[in-house]
Amino acid sequence: MKSGFRKSLLIVVLLWQVLLLAGCDYFVSEQQAQVPFYNRDSRGRADTIGKLGTQSISIPAGVIDGWARYMGDPGDFADPKIKAKYQRPPESYDLPIESFGFLYRITDGDIYTSFRQTEEDYRRDNETLIPYGKPFPWAGVIIYGEYDAAPLNFNFTVQDDFRSARDVTHFDYIQQPQPLYGLTVYRANNGIDPKTGEPWKWDDNAKDIFIKKDQAGNIKTYIDCQFTHHINSCHHMFYNDDWHIRVLMIYSRTYLPQWQEMEGNIINILDSWRVSREGKLLGKQIGKA
Questions:
Q1: Sign of the alpha-carbon dihedral angle for 97, 224, 261, 155
Q2: Range of the domain at 4
Q3: Low-confidence ranges of the chain (pLDDT < 70)
Q4: What is the DSSP string of 250-285?
């Protein structure tokens, strides 16, 4: 009897230890699966979090135009079956962000945030400026995280544009003798429409190209401004080595003289969103509602 009792007691003890260990594993798993700390705005909306290039960030709620895309997320036109099966890793401040967009106000360096005064400002500018052809002071901005070993410059992009112009539209880009706003300028067919013999007034392909090189001779800023239906818009791209990102801005050519200020302000905005790996803000967030 005593032997049987001891065996039963030993089995119960061993079973209890197994359950305890299982419980510990379950507790650890639950801890690991917990949602990380989120910074929130005055309405309780959670920030968008992740790692952009080399920095962990917390993007204020209401800022992103659309949504943030993380590395590995299926594309917009991916097979629906692939999208249905895809499971994104749990959100964290180390989850790499591929891209996201927002609206930047050129005149004062502020950004659009829903449920903030800038939302009303943006709506008013749409209604009172665009219909009358007045300069629109907002730039569309897209930030891309760069994670591969490709060089952070536009050397190939510019050369490919020049090649395409020769092969497709049959004119060369000519460097202008004087820089403009600190930028080296190239003009299609030296700025003259070959059909009319006059300066370009309309052509999708006859863009002016502006570049800025670093001390090593690599193109770090690349801007093209087009003449399309009398709307002179600029596509402005630049790389930032510290963040390891590429930035695209689209805005009215009216604001081209402020290109350098815009680049600095975009980095200041991103700097204000930086956090520790635990999600603690390192500064005051620009654009927070």
A1: positive
A2: 1-34
A3: 1-35, 228-231
A4: EEEGGGGGGHHHHHHHHHHHHHHTBB-TT--BSSPP
**CA-based R_g, the chain, Å:** 27
Give a yes or no: residue 52 inside a domain: no
Q: How far apart are CA 163 and CA 209, in angstroms?
A: 14
Answer whether residue 233 is part of any domain.
yes
Question: Cβ neighbours of residue 193 under 8 Å, at least 6 residues apart?
Answer: 199, 200, 201, 203, 206
Q: How far is CA 74 from the centre of its chain?
A: 17
Is 160 part of a structural domain of the chain? yes
Name the residue among 283, 273, 282 with its Cα closest to residue 68: 273
Last residue of a domain, one of 197, 218, 240: 240
The CA distance from 172 to 166, in Å, is 6
**Positions of E strands within 106-182:** 138-145, 173-175
Tens of pLDDT, residues 112-170? 999 999 999 999 999 999 998 899 999 999 999 999 988 999 999 999 999 999 999 89
Give dist(CA 41, CA 116) in Å, integer: 11
Domain total in the chain: 2
Q: Is residue 174 within 8 Å of 190, Cβ to Cβ?
A: yes
Q: Is there a domain that residue 272 lies in?
A: no
Structural element, H or E, at residue 77: none
| Rounded Cα–Cα distance for residues 203 and 285 (Å) | 41
Please state, as a whole number, how many other Cβ atoms lie within 10 Å of the Cβ of residue 221: 22
